[in-house]
Amino acid sequence: MSSIVIADTSSSYNGRDLELRPLRGTETSVIRLARALARRGHQVTVYTRALESIENEGVSWRPLSEGLPESCDLYLPVHQTKLLGLVRRPKRLALWVAWPANQLSHYKRLPAMWWYRPIPVLMSLYQAHAYSRLLPRRDPQIVIPHGLPDDIRGLPPLSVPPQPHAIFASDPTRNLYAVVSIWAERILPKCPNAILDIYGVHGVKDGEDPWTVWGGKFLPANLSAAQRESIKIHPSVTRAELIAAMRQSRAMLYLGHKTEAFCLSVAEAQALGVPAVLAPTTCLPERIVDGVTGFLRSDPQSFADAAISLLSDDAVWRHHHEAALRLRQGISWSEMAARLELALLSDRIPLDWGVNDPSVAERDVDPYDLKTKGPLDAAALRVPLDQSSPEIFRR
């Protein structure tokens, strides 16, 4: 068992919040990775901006204000270089690069990257290709995609096509204005009965009119009453409600954003069998198979035409829906944790320890405590690899 410390300044949250309130992708990913590492028998502590200390799903959650330990086996801060020195003597220091890698080459962050030399853990080929030459190089680079939760993977095809509903499920700052403009001007005239559902974690409060709060900023201000009627802006909802809404959508529409590094919402939508129409920017080409599970389109009219085909043609939707269910299931969070373990802690893993072994806590033996526990039964510990997933990808 290794001691693993994760630090994140994204927001004030802890492990309980995953089931209690809407969270953004970074917070969700930290919680799921921490839980997966704990299930693999590691001692995991996560420090965030939360104000209370709790234990949840085998993970210790602590406030950053409490201070971090002097040492641990692996220290994994999330993206921010100001976190690198908070554990003074980690046996291994890595940096989980959660946003575009070139943010790390900013003149305020570059000195810390050279001083501490953390091992960068990337999550997309886009990050690997864009990794600045100004940053300390690591060859090969470590690229480990986000995992996907088990409850959205392996679902059967829908027997009946959904109603002509498209979904946008991201922060409104990420090109919502352009998506709504294309919808109103190019898609709605060809699909007059279609609905665009807008979900995401946003600041619109109960009782506020999003068209008043967002008009002219995140939403076009000059839309007609009919155009506005076709656009449903939902309050921030629980994860279960969002997954249900995705599953019943004909298509996800998203133009991407320069801050994108993985796009978990598109990955989850594809695993649910939702075809996506995307712009070919940043990491988005990695999230779908163009022409098979969705479309990559670079101009407004072709983007609209692709969306119209999915909303109006059952055969086109069916082809992309079933292909997404076959081809875009991703990897589980358990395997993501296993890949991280292999990449960063392989020197501490016994040779007869299967890469996808279940929790050590469920056994009577501790594979790391060889002196007190005695010889291990390799047959009892070995678990077959997940045959649906490739070996750890190192570029």
UniProtKB/TrEMBL annotation:
Pfam families per record: Glycos_transf_1 (PF00534)
InterPro entries: Glyco_trans_1 (IPR001296)
Single GO term (MF): glycosyltransferase activity
Lineage: superkingdom: Bacteria
Keywords, alphabetical: Glycosyltransferase, Transferase
Catalytic EC class: transferase
EC number, UniProt record: 2.4.-.-
Gene3D superfamilies: Glycogen Phosphorylase B (3.40.50.2000)
Stretches assigned to the Glycosyl transferase family domain: 227-314
Keyword flag Glycosyltransferase: yes
PANTHER family named among the record's database cross-references: D-INOSITOL 3-PHOSPHATE GLYCOSYLTRANSFERASE, GLYCOSYLTRANSFERASE
Protein name, as recorded: Glycosyltransferase family 4 protein
Taxonomic source organism: Kaistia terrae
